[in-house]
Amino acid sequence: MKNKSAIIKLFVANTISGCAQGISMISIPWYFMDKLNKPSEFGQYYLIIGFITLFWGLYAGTIVDRFNRKRVFLGLTGAGALVIGSITAIGYYLNGLPELLVVCVFATTFFIYNLHYPSLYAFMQEITERRLYGKITSYLEVQGQFTSMLAGACAVILLEGTPGGTFELFGVSLNIGFTLEPWPLRKIFLLDTITYVLSFLIVSTIVFVPLVQRNIDSSGLVQRIKNGVEYLKKNPLVFIFGNASYFVFVTTLIIGFYLMAVYVSDVLKAEGNVYATGEMLFAFGSLMAGVASAQLFKRFEAVDTIAGLATITTSVFVALFISTDVNVFYLGAFLLGFSNASIRIQRVTFLFRIVPNDVIGRASSVFFIFNTLFRLIFIGMIFKFFTEPDKVPYAMLMLAIFVSIGVLILLSFKSPLIALGREEDAKAASENNNAG
Predict the structure, then answer these.
(1) How far is CA 233 from the centre of its chain?
(2) Any residues with CB less than 8 A from the CB of 145 and at least 6 apart, and which?
(3) Which of 30, 226, 275, 427 is buried deepest, with most CB atoms within 10 A?
């Protein structure tokens, strides 16, 4: 494998920063739901942040395609350490954190996510051999979801503490032999800051050789955005696939960042350990997808696989609409994690095959804009119509209908999408033979 050292270091840095990021992003929604009892206020903050990311997302794609991806990662980890470190310092100085500063940490992490993952995938495409795309996307999912699972396990302990030396996981009380008080947010944010610093140091040592020809667009910001949009206008099948295959991801972001905390608190009437355990099971399902999905679905076309897994996702949302059993919630969280991660692997691998590396950042940013628009619409609808405990399950039904529409779109364009993938594979094989 070429660039093996660079790939390993990128994985390590991603794992270190991702764990603390995950703990923060689990802790903040629960802090608003359980500690402050302000789910509506958090929904408003989420809407505002989401609206801002519409504009940030367009700009982020041009950054990914215009600049050296290593430098982009250094900028991200450096900015994360600076902003969250400053807020943490204020928290220790005041012996507590004002609500708006907690929201600032959420927003900062959210903005970093929205540049981090397009940069990560573009970087990996740039330094990975084409024949290894499937493996690398599977490894990325394993790494990312192992990190999320670890973050969920840590969040169980940090959010609730270990009174009497025990904590509850999967409904079972585990004795760990020592008592730990629940961590205040400023302490969690300090851990987050430290991991950003460590990631910055690791990324700074990465040395790589690009494996794909990258024609950097050095035009102005507006023109770069136009060029990215023009590419998708000329390739409508890429546009259709990129958005329709994103539908499940749209819903799982709503679940993870907002709806799961509300569902656990208001519908299941459960404590923070159930919420954190659900997050952990989601990550465990995703981890299993990273390990097994490549083998499970290798004989199927990406479009068929994504449509089938999206149908499973629809069924989970219907089950959560009907049932208020905690075990159904746990099973649903696992299946959502497995389906979402498997779809991401299939989706990213397929996009790697059909989208040139020099426009993949901007193409991803357009998909991200539609993703964000859908999320804003759904969060707005949930905030307006589904905030009462007896109405929250109907939000699950709404998401089920949305994912079903994505399935129908993918199946409608199944044949031309399959033909496009095979055509691009043939082009790449011809170019490799000519180069040889």
Answers:
(1) 26
(2) 283, 284, 285, 286, 287, 289, 290, 337, 341
(3) 275
Q: Who's near 387: CB < 8 A, 6+ residues apart?
A: 39, 40, 43, 262
- The number of CA neighbours under 13 Å toward the Cβ of 122 is 31
Q: Which amino acid is at 415?
A: S
- 11 C-beta neighbours (distance < 10 Å), count: 20
CB 171 within 8 A of CB 306: no
Give the pTM.
0.68
Q: How far apart are CA 156 and CA 384, in angstroms?
A: 30
CA 98 to chain centroid: 27
Q: How far is CA 202 from CA 133, 143, 147, 189, 403, in A?
A: 23, 16, 17, 20, 39
What six digits make up the tokens of 270?
């459960």
Instruction: Count the Cβ atoms, other than its own, within 10 Å of residue 93.
Output: 9
- Residue 436 has a CB neighbour count (10 Å cut-off) of 5
Strands 172-175 and 166-169, bridge-based pairing: antiparallel
Dist CA 28 CA 185 (whole Å): 8
User: In the numeric block, which tokens belong to residue 256?
Assistant: 């993870």
